[in-house]
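Hello,

Following up on my earlier ticket. Below are the four sequence lines again, exactly as submitted.
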Amino acid sequence: MDDSDGNKKVYVGNLDESAERARELLIKGLKLDKIIDWGTTFSLWPIDLTTSCCGCEFAATWGPRFDAERYGALPWLSPRQTNLIVIEGTITRKMACALRVSWEQMPHPKFAIAMGTCALDGGLFYNSYNIVRPWKIIPVDVYVPGCPPRPEALARAIVELQRIVKKGEASKTILRGMARSKPTPKLKEDPCSWWWG
Amino acid sequence: MAYISIWTLTRDVISTVFWGIVKLIFWPPIYQFVIIPGLVAALVVVISIIWFERKAAARVQMRYGPLEVSPKLAGYLQLFADLIRYSFQEIIIPRTADIIPFITSPFFALLLSLLPLAVIPVSPVKWTWPLTLSAMRYSVLIAAALTTLSPIFIVAMGWASNNRFSTIGSMRESFLITAYELSAIIGIFSVVATVHSFDFTNIVNFQGGGKWLGLINPIALLAAFIATLISTSAFPFEISDAENEIVAGPFTEYSGLMYGVNMGTAYIKRWAMSVLIVLAFLGGWRPYIPPPNAGYIAGYLVPSLIVSAKAVVVMALMSFLRAVYGRYRIDQALHISWKYVFALAIAGFGLGILEGYLL
Amino acid sequence: MSSNDQLKNFSEKLKENLGDLISKVEIHKGFILIETHIDKVRETAKKLKEIGFDHVKSVTVVDRMKDGVFEVGYHVSSYLNKDLAKYVVELVTTVPRDKPLVPSLTDIWLSAEFQEREAYEGFGIIFKDHPDLRPILLAPPVAELKPMRKDFVVKEEGIYRELPKKENVSSKVSEKKG
Amino acid sequence: MIIDMQSSEVPRLNMSSWEIGESRYLPGMEIKKLGKEKFVVYIGPQHPGSGHMRIIIKVDGDVIVEADPDLGYVHRTMEKLSEGRAYIKIIPLVERMAILDACNATLPYVEAVEKLLGLEAPERAKYLRVALCEINRIASHLYGFGIFGVFLGHSTMYMWGFGDREILVELAEKLTGARLTHTYPIFGGVRRDAPQNFTDNLRKAIRYLRKRLEDYRRMFLDNPVIRKRLEGVGIVSKRAATDLGLVGPNLRASGVEYDVRAVEPYEAYDEFDFEIPVFEEGDSLARAWVRVEEIKQSLRILEQVADKLDKTKGQQIMHDRFWAKVPPLYKKVFEAEGRVKLMPLFAILRVPKGRAFARTEAGRGEITYYIESDGKDKPYRVRIVSPSYRNAIMFKYAIPGHRVADLPAIYGSFDYFPPEADR
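Thanks for your patience. The regenerated structure is below:
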């Protein structure tokens, strides 16, 4: 545009603001958040981090009788391609390091289910000197009590997690860069400080 | 003074644009590389095949498989959900990785595994051929050469990841490349010996009247089939990304969309090989013969759909083996491919020569 | 009971065979205990292996805090000799708690290797000439606590905690009131 | 998958000074060493081919030169915790080490305490214990097969193994009230009587499983791919198996005929007619076959148990010493529901001074308990040696010399269950 002096001028508003507005427009126009949440809901792939004896029931949950693959959850091998950790029972001091490392290896958005009483607060082994509480290591979205929980209970936990995700837990981290409603706990001590490998 | 009617002008413009778009779509390089049997068809087929693979395996294993995502469609949308999840997940690039090959190799591998589809005929009508007439005479040769390009990038992926499991995986992949390629190419070339032509059109035309080369020369078909299984890491040869041994092999460090691309690459390669096998052994578009001056639909769309439908059947068969077999060890796979599959391919080639002499 | 007689016969046979090497033979419920001095452990173990006890079932360490000793026991039995397979013999030796140094029997019974490592991390017993003595189950910082010793006490449920004596409680209460 | 790219050496691993006989390796496992730099791969603990443990392997090309099992990822310190708990509370505690094999894992503990108390379970209780033990044994073997299938990339075997295991789990649930953590045998008897149509269901399950075993053979064990992976892989000779002190099916696959059920019959095993399957080959395939044969034998035992249970219907399931103390109200409960509610009796149970050692044959092999009582309500020392822990030593000696791809094949054939090993 030309102004009265004939100089060319380009009118630029606040770039950040307009970018923000464009993003909101995209999100609202394409309903991107809904799409992302829908996709994540039915694609919760748990990682193969078998931590304790609840793993028996974890395996049975994906067995033919209970078949958790119906919900789109497929146990996967490598943390880079998964988005769900199922903590299967007790976490020992040695395993705490593996749990934390696996959690950090997983890409956002990621979720966690704590299975079994031991994962809640120690369970039968509440006074053991070799266990840690999983919620001190990673943020847990859904707790499943039981020792061990029945496969139905774990399937229910997956459905419960799907409900949480559907409320916008996945899209808000991706699209709006917001933090998850459950923040990652700050470690008081490094669980891997002794790691010799 | 001549004046131009607005109406005529508009009509002309619209028709030009419309036919321009149609021409562009049905322009052989674009049509074959992007639409059928290229990218779009491949994606649809891959999604359906993975769904089929999961459902069929579940059927054998006394369960449902993916269901809750769309109970009315028997969980068909499951793969879309996975695709969306992968596409929007964080992409992690490890600090120790070699960044440029790490990022570019998956896409090169994907594109190069599609390339063979851009040089093959899917219809006998002359204008649909993607290459010039003189080049078309060597289409088998060109397609076979192009199938050998993409594995190099899988090796590069494993090397660039700088992960121990990836390194082992890419080492296995490089062993397997040498093992299957010869068998696959000799297997497909045995039809050349029978038909006396490097031209896919001649080969398909030769197979008229139910005289499929797969029936005439089953040995070569078997060799090509097994070699395809090895090349696309299908069971029982899922070795380079054997999950229980080396996590995800070359793809261990890939996350988000990049892994989605990687996962697609193996299936797309299987798709390309299936199309080649259909053309070489299973009669191509053959029960249907388009009229010599056929248009877009009768001359291009219909035969390409027939080829695709046959290829889907071949691919489904390959995928179903997952439910039945475990996986071989790398040295056993090499042993099998050099000692038996290679011998099978040579025997098929010999049989092809003999039949070419007799028929 | 006939099985008890058998055990008695067998323990007498063992006594004859091992002679001076052992100081005590006892019949317990389910096993025969033979005690030997720490210097004679290796000799006794070799002798037992010659007799036909070819594997270790369990390396059992008991912390006798009152006596100030560790009791290191090897429950051994046989696979290949079917007569011996019926019996479980525990070869026991004692070491002082403040200087727990025991000769390793891994070169005689390979099956003791991991269990000796476990005794090392749990009680801090050092097995001399063990090929690979390092913690097996615990992380090093936990293993340093020597958690299996009796003086390492894990906290228990309230019902089991020893209550303070009544006088103390009442006196405390009275102090507060005052 | 935990990988450290910086360190290529495992510290504190010094094997050079160690010689067993003439060779460092067991016979048949010698390796030619090449003068190249070795490649250290850390497999686990987050790794589909390792479960809850870590194996540090050194690779020369594709051949494993050294394997170092790193256990303890599920070490929940059961031995220490049981020193501070009442005797009856230890049963559910030690059960957690092998919840898929719970009855077998707790039975020797119960037996050892019974030895100290000087009592023996009544006849019907013994049959019920044997029934649950054998159900658990089959379930544990099927679990092993499932995991083995996953390791070899055979997902159908995993699904079949777990699907058919549900039948046995359900039987156990009918009998005890819990899917996995039964806490069924208690001192002097069992916790509950069998429900009404238990034996009929048991017979039905036996018929079904016999049919399915044939399917497994066709689909898995005689599958050409699986056979090729397993035959001649991970050979452990008879001598090596004895030296390493292996237990259970792994021992019997190497030609050693040792089964606690036959050597020192406990409970009612001397009344039943069964064989001990022994294979001479000692490779992974033999280990798989031993399990199949054992399932067949267990089915045979279960058939006999079902008959015995029918015969002893209505008999006592608790030792007189405890039964006499039961209040009349609880006796009524027993008559109505077949359920014994005795917990208050056991809470104050004091066990006489003494030491006891008990062993039984669990699904994965011999499990031993050493219990020392100082006359109080808590044991002075409980020493548990579980079958997987004794088998863990195999990783160190049976894996070197094989290829990386053989690791899952060998691992799966061991039927190694880490929570059981770590206790």
